[in-house]
Design goal:
The protein is mainly α. Helix 5 runs parallel beside helix 7 and helix 9 runs parallel beside helix 11. The chain is globular and about 70 Å long. The termini are far apart.
Length: about 350
């Protein structure tokens, strides 16, 4: 019962309450000497996911707990519904740590577990949607879109067109299509899913993420004015939810649109706001390095080459992992540094940095 309450609080976004309940369950299980029951595995799963949400410094401990839970489910409770959820959280944790191969492996196991589940419902489309998100994040766009398409069919068959799971998956698939070059098709899907989510999940984190996704899509399609409007709307939806870290995604998106529009002062204020929050706590999908990169871009746009150098250097120091996200960021940093060198008249350095950027892609 304590674990069920903790799960309910966690899925409702009330992490502090969830932690209190899961700590009580952990104490009770320790008093009983229980380290092998399904309840113990569930406690590890929930505690591991709560740690994952706290920030990048908690990911190693999250990984340890989730791997212990997965091993217990695998050995003793392979048909328990908590097994696939554990693998979902583990895949996301591994992705956050930059362990791309291991993350996709955990997602593959989640698909396999869901496929043999005796519980009918959204387990299979959920697993494909998760693997699609993992594959998308590590650069396997074709595989990601195939998973998202499979998930779309499963969601429509099990929960229907208007369910938030169907629409959320459609929005994610739309971004994949845009990155695959099918921009018109992808943008239509993103806009349509965003309209439905605004109606059925108004004010929720799902609603905010959908608007934020529209902003990113407008940037990809060369519409910075529309992007700025969308990101500002997303910030407004995030604000009453009091999740400052998640809101920084919309904040940095809005800053990027404003830089393109030449509104440098406003962009600078937004980036400093985002940096203050991420300096306290960041996660793999909302890294501090990205803010420094954008501050470097802003300084470059203003012709402040020394400041651009400093900010790009800070971004590089924070992008040292082997993850795809950090590798892509380092390639972009080389490209930006090439522009700085060119503006300084240092043609050899500009050429070397440009070659490095191209080799990293």
């Amino acid at each position: 019962m304590l674990g069920q309450i903790a799960d309910a609080e966690m899925y409702a976004g009330r992490s502090d309450e969830a932690r209190r309940w899961i700590d009580r369950q952990q104490t009770m299980l320790a008093q009983l000497g229980d380290r092998s029951s399904a309840s113990y595995a569930g406690m590890l799963r929930t505690k591991g996911n709560l740690l994952r949400r706290e920030g990048s410094n908690k990911l190693p401990e999250s990984k340890r707990l989730l791997e212990e839970a997965a091993a217990l489910y695998r050995a003793r409770y392979p048909n328990d519904v908590g097994y696939s959820g554990t693998l979902f959280f583990l895949a996301q944790t591994l992705r956050g740590m930059g362990a791309d191969v291991e993350a996709e492996s955990a997602a593959n196991e989640a698909v396999a577990v869901a496929g043999r589940s005796e519980v009918s419902g959204v387990e299979v489309p959920n697993a494909h949607s998760l693997r699609g998100a993992i594959r998308d994040s590590i650069g396997n766009l074709l595989g990601a879109e195939q998973d998202a398409a499979t998930a779309a069919q499963g969601y429509r068959r099990t929960v229907g067109e208007a369910d938030f799971l169907t629409q959320q998956n459609d929005g994610l698939r739309g971004m994949m299509l845009m990155r695959l070059g099918r921009r018109d098709e992808g943008l239509r899907l993103i806009e349509a899913s965003g309209a439905v989510l605004a109606r059925i999940r108004s004010g929720s984190s799902t609603h905010a993420a959908a608007i934020e996704r529209q902003g990113a899509a407008y940037l990809l399609s060369g519409q910075p004015q529309h992007a700025a409007v969308a990101f500002e709307q997303a910030r407004n939806v995030w604000q009453p939810r009091r999740d400052e870290l998640q809101r920084t995604g919309s904040t940095t998106g809005l800053a990027r649109a404003l830089v393109i529009l030449g509104r440098y002062d406003e962009a600078g204020v937004l980036l400093e706001e985002a940096l203050a929050i991420r300096a306290q706590r960041d996660i793999a999908t909302l890294p501090r390095a990205q803010v420094h990169l954008q501050l470097g871009e802003l300084a470059l746009a203003r012709g402040q080459l020394e400041l651009a150098d400093r900010e790009l250097g800070r971004a590089e120091q924070l992008s040292a992992s082997a993850s795809r996200a950090d590798r892509a960021r380092r390639a972009l940093l080389d490209a930006l540094r090439a522009r700085v060198a060119s503006l300084r008249g240092d043609a050899p350095a500009a050429m070397a940095l440009s070659r490095s950027a191209l080799q990293s892609i």
